[in-house]
Amino acid sequence: xxxxxxxxxxxxxxxxxxxxxxxxxxxxxxxxxxxxxxxxxxxxxxxxxxxxxxxxxxxxxxxxxxxxxxxxxxxxxxxxxxxxxxxxxxxxxxxxxxxxxxxxxxxxxxxxxxxxxxxxxxxxxxxxxxxxxxxxxxxxxxxxxxxxxxxxxxxxxxxxxxxxxxxxxxxxxxxxxxxxxxxxxxxxxxxxxxxxxxxxxxxxxxxxxxxxxxxxxxxxxxxxxxxxxxxxxxxxxxxxxxxxxxxxxxxxxxxxxxxxxxxxxxxxxxxxxxxxxxxxxxxxxxxxxxxxxxxxxxxxxxxxxxxxxxxxxxxxxxxxxxxxxxxxxxxxxxxxxxxxxxxxxxxxxxxxxxxxxxxxxxxxxxxxxxxxxxxxxxxxxxx
Length: 383
Ligand code: SF4
What we know:
InterPro entries: Hyd_form_HypD (IPR002780), HypD_1 (IPR042243), HypD_2_sf (IPR042244). With 383 residues, this protein is an alpha/beta fold. Helices cover 39% and strands 18% of the residues.
C-alpha cells in the first residue's frame, strides 16, 4: 500500500492546493471524464477543498452508467434463454433493465455467472460445449482490449459456442458531444488516464484545438486529481489549450500498440447510443465482419429490442454535467443503491452512487435519505 499512500500525502496535497489557489483569478468549470476520478473527488472531498472558483463537473466516463437500457434488456433476454450461460462482471448484475435485473433472472433459474475476466467465460465455453456461453462486453477503451482478445482466441481455437454482447464506447467522441451541447459549460478536461494508457494521446490535440480547451491526462489518486486540476487551471489562466500528460507513470503518447492492434483487428468503429445522452456518431465499437459470427446480438436475434428510459431518472443530465446528483428529486428517496432508478446510482463508479456513499449526510436534508439502508455496491472490475 506504500505506493498508494504516496499519492494521498496530505502535505503534498496542501502544496498543490496552495498552487491552485495562487493561480486562480476567476471561475473555471472543469470536467473529470472518468467515474473512477469522480469517486476519488467525492470520497476525499477534493471538490470541497478547491477554491470556490474551480467547479468540477462529473462527466460520462462510467461504463455501466452509459450502457443503454435497451442493451440491459437484450442481456436479460439472452440470459433467460434455456441452455445459455450468461457471464458478466459483477457490477452489471444489479443494473435494472425494464422490470428486472440479471440477479432476478438468476433467481428465476437462469444461469448467470460473475466472472473476473472474459477469458473465464471462454474457459466455461470450453467446459460446456453443449451450452451457449455469452459474455457481456461493455466499457471504454480499457475493457475493450481483453474482450477483443477473447473473441480472437475463440476464433483461433474454433470455440463456436461463445459469443460477446458488445456495447463498447470511446471517450474522444463523448468529449466532442459534450463540447457541442448548447448547454455546455466545460472549459477544460481531466482526461481518463487508464483510457490513454491503451489509446495514447493522439486523438486529443485536434479536440483541444477545435474547442480551445486544455485536456490534461490525469490519474486516479488524490494527488493525481489535484495535479490535473493545477495544470488545467494554469493553462486556462494563461489562455492556453494544449494536451498535457500528467500521468506519465502509466501513459505514453503512443498508448499500448499491442492492445490497439488487437482492437483494430477485432472491432470496427460504429455509432453507439449512450444512456441518457443518445446516439453519438463513431462513439463505439462493434465486432468487425471477420468476427461477426461471435456477436451475441445477431446470434440470439435480439437486435430489435428497443426500450425507453424511465422519465423520472435524470441520469442523462448527470452524465452530461448539467445536474449534480443530489439535485435530482429522486436522490436518496425513491432512488438509492438498494433501489436504483438509474445506472448512475447502481454502478460503483456512478456519480449518484458516489454522492450517496460519501455526501448524502452533508447535503440538504431529504427526509428518507438517512433512513434508507446502507449501500451494498458490487466491486467493479469494469473500467
Ligand atoms: S438519483 Fe437516481 S433517479 Fe436521479 S439521476 Fe441519479 S440514478 Fe437517476
